[in-house]
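Before a colleague's protein record goes any further, I have to sign it off. Alongside the sequence sits a line of tokens, each denoting a local backbone shape. I want your independent view on whether this chain really folds as the tokens say. Where you disagree with what is written, explain briefly why. This is what I was given:
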Amino acid sequence: MTTTASSDFLVSGYLNSVQYKWARHCVAELIRTIRPDAVTLVDSFGFSDYQLNSALGRYDGNVYETLIEWASREPLNRGGDVVDGYEEEILPLVCKGRGSAADFEKSAKL
């Protein structure tokens, strides 16, 4: 159970703290039980990678190669221009504590 879900259950009075702890324990136990068969179970639903629009869990195992390929085909990643304000607003936040923005951009190139 996520923190958001738990707070909703507790605030609404649907569960008390003892019931929530018990439910959380049960969910953790079920996850441990299901985990070894999770991929097979989800694959049994028959959703293709295309339908899921996800490279994670690919049938061929090429997760990272596929993510890079998909990112390179994304229209926003073509042409080299970045969104307005990137240099002034976003890049300094990304580089905070990592040296200069120029150093970061050199190391971030694929």
Summary: The mean pLDDT is 78. Residues 1-46 form one domain. Helices lie at 3-12, 17-34, 38-43, 49-52, 63-73, 86-95, 101-108. Residues 83 and 90 are 10 Å apart (CA to CA).
